[in-house]
Amino acid sequence: VQINSQRMKKRMDAINSIAVTADGGMMRLTLSDADKTARDLLKNWMEQEEMEVQVDDMGTMYGYMAGSDQNALPICAGSHMDTQPNGGRYDGLFGVMAALEAVCTLKDNGIVTKSPLVVINWTSEEGTRFSPSMLASGVVAGIYETEWSYNRKDIDGISVLDELKRIGYFGKKENRLQRAKYYVEAHIEQGGVLEAEDYELGIVNACLGITGLRINIVGEADHAGPTPMTMRKDSLMAAAEIMLKVRELVLNYGDPAVATIGTISVLPGAQNIIPGETSFTIDIRHDIPEGLTSLEEEIRVVIERTCKEYDLKKKIERYWRADPVYFNKEVIDAVEQAAEKVGVSSRTITSGAGHDAVYISRIIPTGMIFVPSINGKSHCPQEDTKWEDIVKGTEVLVETLLELDNN
Amino acid sequence: VQINSQRMKKRMDAINSIAVTADGGMMRLTLSDADKTARDLLKNWMEQEEMEVQVDDMGTMYGYMAGSDQNALPICAGSHMDTQPNGGRYDGLFGVMAALEAVCTLKDNGIVTKSPLVVINWTSEEGTRFSPSMLASGVVAGIYETEWSYNRKDIDGISVLDELKRIGYFGKKENRLQRAKYYVEAHIEQGGVLEAEDYELGIVNACLGITGLRINIVGEADHAGPTPMTMRKDSLMAAAEIMLKVRELVLNYGDPAVATIGTISVLPGAQNIIPGETSFTIDIRHDIPEGLTSLEEEIRVVIERTCKEYDLKKKIERYWRADPVYFNKEVIDAVEQAAEKVGVSSRTITSGAGHDAVYISRIIPTGMIFVPSINGKSHCPQEDTKWEDIVKGTEVLVETLLELDNN
User: Fold this and answer.
1) pTM for this structure?
2) C-alpha–C-alpha distance, residues A125 and A307, integer Å
3) pLDDT by residue (tens digit) across B11-22?
4) Contact residues, chain A, for B194 at CB < 8 Å
5) C-alpha distance from residue B307 to each of A265, B237, B244, B266, B275 (Å)
């Protein structure tokens, strides 16, 4: 089944012209005026296609296309339309528009599924305006409490609830997604693996688990000049050694294990004083819970040993732990068969980033489809995907929905 | 000749009780009320000892004790009385009080030198309230222009000239030190070498030259999760490798060569984003100009090669270069003979930190005497020196002045 590529492109371009930065980036912050404009467009298109639009109390939008079987549970597809500040054209939006286009394509071809099909736009995935990320899907999955989520505030002290009401997207709690047969999310890869290996599609089998460590190393802040190299207790040198050892360790674990030191600071932070204190974070990801645990353990040993060697004190605090998530075998198989049918080259891939699908997988059989990201870029104006990959990815979604409908 | 240890201690304690922080640190910021109180005390003591007190247009204080030879050039000794915020009890103050005690001791013993003896308190050595450091000695040595120096401002926009006038220490330009036979500065080591090797005194032969580099490495700020270790352009990993290689390089050069990475920052600085950009400084010190140059060159090669290996862009900017300074042979010899006479264990040592003596050495034959710092600490409340080392160091200064007077 071929999609209407022109229609899809026109709709995506419409949304991507709402709030464009000087760099050509997207600025649809969660529940902002730009987000409202995007939501209104989506709502109009869904209504044009004779879908029933519902909004829940977290502002999440659901467009229902009726199925032939009154008793069948719905099959859902979607993602989010909010962006990072100065974000990209495809992150989130692709998954929503692919779902919409899939429903329209089936309708155009006179294909009625047994299950109702639901196009979903989750509220507040990015977590930049309101923290944490994946807020609405987290509420639906029972991870975040409703009241607490309403009261998440942006930098100006404005709450989620205030903004839901202001832009007219504070819907009903009973509209929340509760029971469904499947949930499928199409998304850009946000990494460079598919492109590097020349695949057109990724069949996502899992999402990496994450452990976040905050490390503080305390040495002695002595004068840069009068303190011989051999008499120093340089916390930054120990940190440098730890960083390189962590990288070596993770390289030995092999893909998809990764570790990232994304923040670092030193005290007192003067050009002519040896850093008495160095603080940094390590973001550790692995696709198997035991692997994540043992990687964390080995990293702790590296820190321990290095600090002992340097005769330094250290504190290690775990600020985050999320187990790996495995997507549903039936959805994975359906995506695989759909990819074969459409004739795209594909490989199994593990998502390194979090997605609404990760939370939804707790309550509904879930899977994901990745399309390649050019140069692996996302969350920036350079974020890009070849249009033909967008089209093929959407066609795979159409076939996946049909496969799942037959299960 | 024995000094009056009690008198000296009483005077130092008096000054060290003017402005004490909660931590027990000293807070005599340059030209503050606390600095004025300290200056007034010094002035009173000098006048009590029948010294002639002069103040120059940078606020530097000179206490003249007449000599027997009308034609002899003066021999000077001193240091500074300003401190770092929350600084120590001995940095600077020791050199001024040792000079005063030396003059008093000679007077008590009826010893009149041929040369007049001058006790000096240099204005604004620390460079914390007003930048740069060693301001008044820099003006006297012709390094800084007078008007520019008057207009140095603190964080509140108050200038050196304003404060000199406010506290009543804006003296006459003709009082500036111009010609002198010698200048000797006693100071704490500010490092741990003398203590570690169990010496009571350091005969300072030179002051390390400094090259300061500011380095900026640009890679790519990708997602921590979806970017495999082998596909990263992680600027911080390259920086870590450079840091360890620089340390190895400097260790091979041997003492007193040192290199310090005292500041580091990464962009964007998020826990889950690979640092696209890392900036840091390297403070490089060496006792020989050619050594300093070749060390800088080798460090640049390390940076160059590492960035090439990682396929990253880099910028290297030199923010500072000061050649090593060699102190005067006659002063060094005089200190050595004085140390022998007093019977203290001593070694030749190179100063890693800057001192007023470094600038003054450009215009007057100059030398320095170091006393040990406990745990190598300075610029902090923990800064400390055994009182017996203070006494011995002062007695060495007395004998040094006598040696120099006989030259």
Assistant:
1) 0.88
2) 39
3) 999 999 999 999
4) none
5) 22, 10, 14, 16, 14
